[in-house]
């Protein structure tokens, strides 16, 4: 999967009935189904059941079991509420009749009100930075096999970290991490539900890794068990996926074998388009 259209095809679910939908999987270099795919497909399923004039403003989800790449996922949507301004849906995802994921999502009519936002951090522009592809090509012979496989796997996104962490140096880093992200080969303008699904897909890629940065001397891709526990997104403004998007992430806490991470997502012009939080399992492999 190398293009935005191929990603949209992945997020376009087969309809089983009015509330049940089936999604297929895509390998991104990990042993289980990528969490961002499940979040985005669950959002796609929920969108199929709400009025067209209502758009998602937030979702909150839990990963209950790892997804099996070899098996399709059944998404079942429940109508919790249709109000005057807001619509609420819950979604469960199943494999082999076991619930592997659950999500609640809220949708709203477009309405006007007060406006404010935080400023985008002042960081180097993507044109000045090297990409994951560059890192793989430069350090590939020295990387652990799993990390090399992950970096070498084709994906519809390009990543350029602002703070470059040399994978050959084990040095603790700051609690903050900024990464520019771009969707490859977008073909046209997309409707807001599709943009939300694309952003949801991208939102799980780097956020939990931020929690390892302060522990990079000891914790790395090969010796640390990592798994997303929960994931939340708030959608504020329409993203422009024809250009680079900045994911500005930090990790306020790690304790109890869990890391807590946050992210603010900006268009290049500084518009805050979304915020993300995630807590995940991070502990040494035994």
TrEMBL record:
UniProt KW keywords: Hydrolase, Lipid metabolism
Alphabetized GO MF terms: fatty acyl-CoA hydrolase activity
CDD domains reported in the protein's UniProt record: Thioesterase_II_repeat1, Thioesterase_II_repeat2
SUPFAM superfamilies, alphabetized: Thioesterase/thiol ester dehydrase-isomerase (SSF54637)
InterPro entries: Acyl-CoA_hotdog, Acyl_CoA_thio, HotDog_dom_sf, TesB_ACOT8-like_N, TesB_C
Domain Acyl-CoA thioesterase 2 C-terminal: start-end pairs: 152-281
Statement: the UniProt record of this protein carries the keyword Hydrolase: yes
EC number: 3.1.2.20
Catalytic activity entry: a fatty acyl-CoA + H2O = a fatty acid + CoA + H(+)
Gene Ontology BP annotations: acyl-CoA metabolic process; fatty acid catabolic process
Domain spans labelled Acyl-CoA thioesterase-like N-terminal HotDog: 29-108
Family membership: Belongs to the C/M/P thioester hydrolase family.
Description of how the protein assembles with itself and partners: Homotetramer.
Protein name: Acyl-CoA thioesterase 2
